[in-house]
## 1
Amino acid sequence: MKQTVCVIIIWTVGLLLIAGVGLNRPDRQPGGGADRTEIVLDSAQIRQQLKELARVKGPDGRPSPQYEAVEQLMQQAENQPPLYDYLLHEAEELFFNATSPWRNEELFLHILQYDLDHHGSTFKGSRREHLYRLIRKNRVGQPACDIRLQMRNGSRKRLSDFSGRYLLLVFFDPECGPCMEVLNLLRRSTDVDRLIRHDRLTLLTVYTDHHPDTWAEIKAHFPIQWQVAVDADQVVEDQHYDLKAMPTLYLLSPQQHVVLKDADVSDILTWLRTHPL
């Protein structure tokens, strides 16, 4: 493990500081003024190193080597504030952006934790603090945030009322094309239908907007065995859940701990097919 970490750190930091980034290059100002330090950032190299970090896993599949390597990278950048800020910006784009193929919220959370631990005074009240608080909600293995819902029959319930069996939670917007595609996939899934009929799974769709006419029109078009609700707790506004892209899917355990967070529908269907419920 130690050898793997050392190789990762040396490769990552070495390429970044030698091939990708010119640091501490003294240049004379016109007129013979004092030396100044010019920071030359090669964005392509920085992004490449962060992408490679996202792929690194230890021998047991755990991400500890990438955590140690990224800490070394940030330590090297700390002496150059523009470089440090740039790394944070690129890390957000790669690891937090909903459309990024390198999305890795746990790695980004580790980066933010490092920033908090070492730069607490500038961290407080910043966008980084906002993202830190948001990502820490509904993490895999942690209890899901409880929210209030209005069901399609007019009754009021809470998310916690659906404990006791696995819960597939789907936040959607009927004007979102991908949302309707995902809902249609779930409607056609024989595995989902079987698990619902055998009381192993509850499928709960939550319309996240508050247009009464739209809600009145759509709520009757879902399968009768699905639970259908409108958000009564301002999930989007209050950010109980991070809905940066729609649809957003969660799989919760019978104890309402997060099993899959913001997962692709294909990953959820695979999980349901390969795990005994």
## 2
Amino acid sequence: MKRLKLIGLVLLVVLVGIQFIPSRTNLDKAVSLSDFIATNGVPENIGHILRTSCYNCHSNNTEYPWYSRVQPVGWFLQNHINKGKAELNFSEFGSYSVRKQKSKLSSMVSQVEKDEMPLSSYTFIHHEARLSQESKKVLINYLNTLKDSL
């Protein structure tokens, strides 16, 4: 029993201690000139869908929930955001080559059609990020039109 209490105490000290090791943040308050919405003159309804369902993980402007300050949750979220931005960063979309932009747009359409994006693990907590059938249709039509115009 003493050993179990010692292990519990050590775990508690470690959990409290890691709270003082911050995670990096992805907060760039300025909207870059190469931002997807700014560069493409995106209509407001499409911009709203993108900001609500995509931008938290795929831009330089993440709005962090309160629980992101609790470690190791904050580290997990930051790692997830870094991976998302490495795959697609809306804040830098305008700086991509036309070929890469078309490829990313095709990939976006495919993933939205297959319900792969936004991730179910994200929409489980962020209900507002779920895409209705109508939102999906509007977004897919816009992305296909944009891709064809490039």
## 3
Amino acid sequence: MICIKLGGRTQNDPRLPPAIAALWQATAGEVVVVHGGGDQISALQRLRGEEPVFIGGRRVTTDTALELVRMVLSGLANKQMVSALVAAGAPAVGISGEDAALLRATPIDPAQFGHSGTPAQVNPGVVHALLRAGYLPVISPVAAREHAGEAGAYNVNGDDAAAAIAAAIGATELFLMADVPGVLDGDQQRLATLTLDEARALVASGVAGGGMAAKLDACAMALAGGVTRVRIGDLAALTVPQAGTAIVAREDATDSSRQLP
């Protein structure tokens, strides 16, 4: 099973829905999609007079921003992606992390990040139920609060949400889609493979910053959770196992390329 995290400009690429629909067919329905929508959230924040703030690639979520996060991620962005996938021939169904408490989160640091959270618990039952029924889950990363009986939501970074969900559903691969062909070195050249130690060094040196730093953190989370293979790449890399950047736990880790039927 492959879990795909969509984000950036690629999310609005007209080639994306047919590519995911083809992958859905090729894998006999073993695909789960998690998506973002940060640009739309930021645009609405500015319209409401609030300048977006990010720390380490993660959004500071004020009360106003949380309203917009729910509106954009679980509403507009989710339904736009579902509609495009259905039109491309994939039986997509849109849900959020709040539905059936699929994803619960705990606050990162309320004083600094507001209503931004980090994954605390995943209930994969709703995802498995949709897959068994022949549907393609399309998931917004807005999460329920950590404690049962506590209403409200947290804004979870889409890469973090995808890593946690991929681990919980037993995905064999997590593919984090980006606007670039993979993780780039200081000379802007794609790195085919990267160990976690090398990834941390790129972040520490500032070569990998912002959203890419958040993606590398998510890769570490997915590998620790048992996901076999983790890659970062663009749309063209989605169905080409050797493309993008494969993140491995250590130098001698085997990187088994996924072979599509």
## 4
Amino acid sequence: MKLHLLDGTYELFRAHFGRPPRNAPDGSPISAVHGVLETVLGLLREEETTHLAAATDKVIESFRNDMYDGYKTGEGIEPELLAQFPILERALKAMGVVVWDMVEFEADDALATGALIYADDVDQIVIATPDKDCAQCVIDDFVVMLDRRRQVVMNEAGVWEKFGVGPISIPDYLALVGDAADGIPGVPAWGAKSAGALLAEYTRLDQIPPDENDWAITVRGAARLGASLRENLQDALLFRELTTLRRDVPLTETFDELRWQGARRSEFEALCDEFDFGELKTRPHLWQD
């Protein structure tokens, strides 16, 4: 049995930028919501999709903004995209999907927590996102990532192949190289190759010997890298804390409550009428009422 955990925020962004424009009867843009519903309905038709939850960022800001002023905010995100978040949450719930809409935490934190607390109930957990933050959750072939756009599955061997480090080192890797999408600048002079090489050897950034002359491997530009890490170690540790996903989000559902039992007919049909989603109205293959 599998549990699918869907990154609803990513799905909404993907549909917004990848779908042709579409407006609701009142003229407001609605293509992102329509695109997500269409693809999730397809996912639910797959035989192995029995238990599903979707996590969304009800607001873009989180507790991490209190920790670091440079962390990502909703600034710059198109208003017509932000306006579709609550509609998506409502639509997925009408479809019968459990939705974790995050305010204090982020969607990725909910995905990480779900991968932890439901681990004893399943044979495999599929985190449907390409977000590199979630690579820290991967475990062998048990917890994997699925890029739904490219239809590529990444297991633990895939994390090593892509990043040069194991899942446990992903927060350290992102702290060193930076993550522009989250507003993490990284440590000056450090890049993917240097971070990958040293973390493959030492696992965590604070386990890297402070004196580059003590490093067990030869790395190009070692003197510059060592000096930069010594000078910016406290920032690097803060960045690691920011890139470490929380696994204590208060999710209240039992595993059985994640089983998809069909769309809620009256709610889903009313939503399709409201937003002129006529072609989706009969797409659910299972109904709760």
